[in-house]
Known about the structure:
The protein is α+β, with helices and mostly antiparallel strands. The chain has helices at residues 17-27, 47-57, 66-69, 83-88, and strands at 10-12, 31-35, 41-46, 71-72. Strand 1 (10-12), helix 1 (17-27) and strand 2 (31-35) form a beta-alpha-beta unit.
Amino acid sequence: MNVLSVNEFIxxxxxxxxxxxxxxxxxAQGICFVVNDSGKLVGVITDGDIRRALLKFGxxxxxxxxxxxxxxxxxxxxxxxxxxxxxxGTLAIVNxxx
Length: 98
């Protein structure tokens, strides 16, 4: 089992979409976490978000920032919450990073 560092998933809100895509490509998990200047989680970007940005913005996608295409207010789990409790009532969670 290959364990990845959280740093392999982090992008800043003011990074380019291309930089975010590179992080997603490097971690090979289809997701990156967007943080603000304080390091607080403010959103996520998935392969699907990038696909939707390409469809919406076309050639203008090249100039977009991570904050322009992220899904804001991602679902979060408090530390110490069991995985079973987290997923027991929520099948909508596709990516659960622990």
